[in-house]
Design a protein that fits this description.
Elements (H helix, E strand, L loop, with lengths): L6 H11 L10 H10 L10 H15 L10 H19 L3 H14 L6 H15 L8 E2 L2 E3 L14 E5 L2 E5 L18 E5 L4 E9 L9 E5 L2 E5 L2 E4 L5 E4 L3 E5 L6 E7 L13 E5 L2 E8 L7 E9 L4 E5 L10 E5 L2 E5 L5 E2 L10 E2 L6 E5 L4 E4 L15 E5 L10 E5 L13 H8 L14 E5 L4 E4 L1 E2 L6 E2 L2 E8 L2 E7 L2 E2 L21 E7 L24 E3 L6
Parallel strand pairs: 1-27, 6-12
Antiparallel strand pairs: 2-32, 3-4, 4-5, 5-6, 7-8, 8-11, 9-10, 11-12, 13-14, 14-15, 15-16, 17-18, 18-21, 19-20, 21-22, 23-24, 24-25, 25-26, 28-31, 29-30, 30-32, 32-33
Helix pairs in contact: 1-3, 4-5, 5-6
Length: 554
């Protein structure tokens, strides 16, 4: 017979056992027998009175039954049952289900008893996406050199889009020269052939949009469409224009000259703006927020949809906050809106653009296209995108031809802390945790992946030095069986090696049009080095991703 354990040893075992058993269907005798098994079959009958008393005390702690708690013992039992369901899902390899169950416990558990749940959540995330430092959570960059001598001017706040194996850019301003107005080259259209790695200047005719900045461009049925943006009249009294006309560049006709035309839209149209977010989804183009100093408050929060079957604009519900320089993507019949900058008047009673702070924000919300409602996204795990603007987003698909993205990646960006704009080391550590060094300078070199099925953010750490940049562009090359190839290029930023925390952190370096390629490989089992597949034989969507390549150009 095993030696009789001490009361302290019994209590210690009970604290873990009570989190895994279902007391709703287990008798006292069965519970004591299960506890006995933890001590190699020791006879605990003489300890029954102690065990019953300790059980009630431990349950009181589990359910947080102090003066401020309203959780009953029955509720604690139900939480214990849900914990066991989550643990069982984890043991059986149903990791996404385990993640969902553990996360649901956070809302219903006492605040004082969430540390073990958070630890369990991080364990599941590591199992799905790879622990920190594993080859499933790193990215290696590979240079993708140009094979053409010509290239577009290095401008920022330009419109970019992908159509097939081509990337198109239009407009922009030379922000590196501290010029926020559209460049004289800002009415040019350039095309990058991804396969040939060559840029060429597209010759155009017709009624062109003119130089502008902060606009967007999207492909539809083989042609390019352009909307929004800002231009300033430089002759005479300076005056800024914010555009509302929709332009089409006919790319389906025979070249070498392609014709611009104005597309007549129906019904009321949104006011002109720059630095807004736009996304093409299921035959409709959605526009959200942006910036127009002619409107009080400057930053906007409205949402509009352009039906491309009849070119009719329709207003949707306003978002929860004003913002500009943000990003938006679509999937699961929802619009996702992340980050940006907002306007905070330093003197609300005496508003002017000169006394407005424009801090970057972290707000992550979605708009359900079915219910027409906004909500803040409930994120799982410890990682967050944090407050960012001017970053780049790219939806990823499990394979070419998929209608809905399985995840997105975001790259780079800029963080404006607002006023005051400095943070102490202690403040940075408190806000950004282990990523506090990344937020020492305003420009970012973070590559993050967001799984749209689990709501988990996961950073992908580079294995070689890369330079932080904002206003880059990204495009997807191909996706199949969980493998995604994509390009990142352009942008502007700083070289941290030439700067200290105290000086010149806003110095801008020349933008580049050289491209970078990242290769996302199939997920691999952490223990066996094999691809994890579902019953159909296809790679798991919620897989870890391994990025391979070498250093990015500036």
């Amino acid at each position: 017979m095993a030696e009789l354990p001490t009361n302290a040893e019994i209590r210690s075992k009970m604290e873990s056992l009570l989190r895994t058993v279902n007391l709703d269907i287990m008798t006292t005798t069965q519970f004591i027998a299960a506890l006995s098994d933890e001590f190699d079959g020791a006879d605990l009958s003489s300890k029954k009175k102690f065990i019953l008393g300790a059980r009630d005390e431990i349950l009181d702690v589990i359910m947080g039954s102090d003066a401020s708690s309203s959780i009953t013992k029955n509720q604690a039992i139900l939480l214990s049952m849900r914990w066991e369901k989550a643990a069982a899902a984890m043991r059986e390899g149903r990791h996404k289900e385990a993640l969902r169950l553990y996360h649901s416990l956070l809302a219903d558990s006492p605040q004082s008893d969430t540390s073990s749940i958070n630890e369990a959540i991080e364990g599941v995330i590591d199992e799905i996406y790879g622990p920190k430092g594993s080859d499933e959570s790193i990215c290696v960059w590979k240079h993708y050199p140009l094979l053409s001598k010509s290239k577009p001017p290095g401008l920022q706040f330009r419109a970019t889009c992908q159509m097939g194996d081509k990337i198109y850019v239009h407009g922009g301003c030379d922000f590196c020269e501290n010029d926020i107005l559209p460049s004289s080259d800002g009415d040019e259209v350039w095309e990058f052939n991804i396969t040939k790695r060559q840029w060429r200047h597209i010759k155009t005719a017709g009624k062109s949009p003119g130089p502008r900045t902060g606009h967007s461009m999207f492909p539809w049925k083989g042609d390019l469409y352009l909307w929004g943006g800002m231009m300033e009249e430089r002759s005479g009294t300076p005056r800024r224009y914010y555009f509302t006309k929709l332009y089409k560049l006919n790319m389906t006709g025979k070249g070498p000259v392609y014709k611009w035309e104005v597309v007549k839209t129906r019904s009321q149209e949104p006011i002109g703006r720059e630095e807004y977010a736009g996304v093409l989804y299921k035959g409709k183009y959605y526009v959200h927020a942006g910036n127009n100093p002619n409107v009080e408050g400057s930053a906007l929060k409205d949402t509009w949809v352009l039906n491309l079957s009849n070119f009719k604009w329709s207003p949707l519900k306003d978002g929860p906050v004003t913002r500009h320089c943000h990003c938006m993507w679509a999937g699961n019949n929802k619009l996702y809106v992340l980050g940006g900058r907002t306007d905070i008047p330093q003197d609300p009673a005496n508003f002017s653009l000169m006394n407005v702070s424009n801090p970057s924000i972290e707000d992550f919300v979605s708009f359900d296209l079915g219910t027409k409602t906004w909500k803040y996204e409930d994120l799982v795990g410890k990682y967050r995108p944090h407050d960012m603007s001017e970053f780049t987003v790219l939806p990823l698909y499990n394979k070419d031809g998929d209608d809905e993205p399985s995840s997105v990646v975001i790259w780079g960006g800029y963080r404006d802390p607002g006023r005051p704009k400095t943070m102490t080391l202690a403040e940075r550590k408190a806000k950004f945790g282990e990523e506090h060094e990344e937020f020492r300078l305003p420009y970012k070199k973070r590559l993050l992946r967001f799984d749209m099925k689990t709501n988990v953010w996961k950073p992908l750490k580079p294995t070689s030095p890369i330079l932080p940049k904002a206003q880059s562009f990204m495009c997807r090359l191909k996706s199949e069986n969980g493998i995604t190839h994509f390009l990142i290029g352009g942008g502007y930023g700083v070289d941290p090696g030439e700067l200290s925390v105290c000086c010149l952190v806003y110095t801008l370096h020349d933008a580049t049009t050289k491209l970078t390629m990242l290769l996302h490989l199939l997920p691999r089992s952490r223990h066996k080095g094999l691809v994890r597949k579902d019953k159909s034989g296809s790679a798991s969507v919620a897989s870890r991703r391994n990025c391979t390549g070498s250093r990015s150009p500036c």
